[in-house]
Design brief:
flat, mainly alpha, single chain, 89 residues
Amino acid sequence: MNSTESGIYLIIGLYLLTGIVALGILDLLTGRIRRKLGVASLDTQSKLASQGSYTGSRGALALTIIALLVFWPVAIYGALSKSRSGGKQ
């Protein structure tokens, strides 16, 4: 492994670690992840089933958590925009 590859792995690791910390803080402050994770995984499962691929509830939950970790800035942005608007959409 050369220095460029190790640098890329370091950046990816820091991004995911920052995401875990940010999502943990978001959940501690708002509790939204604990409340809405089950609903989101059921939604993921139904969308996958409608496309013809079957996945169980555990697979849908894992897929939802992976997507949340990868796209954590979107979750933070959504939480901040809802808190600024007073939760109205």
